Structure formats: C-alpha cells, structure tokens
Amino acid sequence: MKKVHIREAIATDAAAILALIQELADFEREPDAVAVTEKEFVQDGFGDNPLFQCFVAEISQKIVGIALFYRCYSTWKGKSWHLEDLIVTKAERGKGIGFALLKKFISFAHDSGVRRIQWAVLDWNTPAINFYEKHGATVFSDWKITQMTNGAMQKFIAKNHASI
After folding, report:
1. Do residues 38 and 18 lie in contact, with contact meaning Cβ atoms separated by under 8 Å?
2. Using an 8 Å Cβ cutoff, are 59 and 4 in contact?
3. 87-116 burial string, b = 16+ CB within 10 Å, else e?
4. Per-residue pLDDT tens for 65-107?
5. Is the pLDDT higher at 162 or at 7?
C-alpha cells in the first residue's frame, strides 16, 4: 500500500471533500440530501470564523478520506468535539485509512483538553459500529438523534407563530 498522509484540510480541498460527502450520502441511501455548495463549504470552513475543522487523508496527493469535526458543548462534560463525518472512499476502505483519521482526530481532541468526543452512526451500519467499538467507543442504542430540516422549521414557525 502507498503511504497515507494525514493533514489539515485547506480551502482548495473543498471539491474533493464534498465528493466524499456525496459518496457517503449515496451509501447512506440519501443521494439528494447534500445541499451545501462548494462556495458555502469554503466560507463555512475556511473563512474568518470557521465552523468546522477537517483532516484529509491523501495517497499520492489524492484525497481518499476525511475526518470533519466541530466544537460543541456538553452540560455534563464541558468542551467537546463532534465528529460529523469520518469517510474513506469505497476503493480505499480496509487499508487502515479510517483508523489513521480516527487516531488523528482522537489525538487532536485529547490534546485540546476536551472531556468528550461524540459522533453518530446509523444503526444498520454494522461495519462502522464494529470499527468504533473495536477502538474503544461506546455505541448507545438508547439515544436517538433528533433533527429538523429547514422545511420542518418553517412549518413549526408557521404553525406556532402566534404563540411566540
């Protein structure tokens, strides 16, 4: 196997990162879910006030994986990091790249002084669940992720506007 190089992402990596995000959306059976544009992605991650950080994994200067994360806060633990996505392109899976990215993220988080890192995994993604548990993570079955899309927020506001 060729050597994997892990580094911090830069703005010019945006297209390659978004391609991996789209690959993940396809894998997760949500091919039309990625709404963020490359321009938004660059502004949000590489502008004056970045909303996320990202490590990329490269082989022969081609991005084949990412670990994208951002700060969050736990009322129980304090400062935390949320790993939004750990992605390795399908052609490169099983070669230690995901482990290298996870190791980089965990080391970074630990060195930053947080008491907790967190992420989500789909309940049917058994290979990912096994991977995370193998490396010491606890995958909870009793917590459910809760989200509202922009459309759901608009409906909520429209329905409850008079009471706000």
Report:
1. yes
2. yes
3. bbbeebeebebbebbbebbbebbeeeebee
4. 999 999 999 999 999 999 999 999 999 999 999 999 999 999 9
5. 7
Interacting residues of 19 by C-beta distance below 8 A, sequence separation 6+: none
Annotated catalytic residues are: 132
Within 13 Å and on the Cβ side, how many CA atoms surround 127?
8
Token couple for 90 = 């399908």
Crossing angle of the two packed helices 14-27 and 38-46, in degrees rounded to 10: 110
Q: CATH number for the 4-119 domain, one of 3.20.20.190, 3.40.630.30, 1.50.10.10, 3.40.1410.10? A: 3.40.630.30
Q: Is the pTM of this model over 0.85?
A: yes
- pLDDT tens track for 105-123: 999 999 999 999 999 999 9
Domain extent listing, the chain: 4-119
Tokens standing for 115?
A: 């008491």
Q: Say how far residue 147 (Cα) sits from the centre of its chain.
A: 16
Contacts of 74 (CB under 8 A, 6+ apart): 80, 115, 116
Angle at 49 between CA 118 and CA 70, to 5 degrees: 5
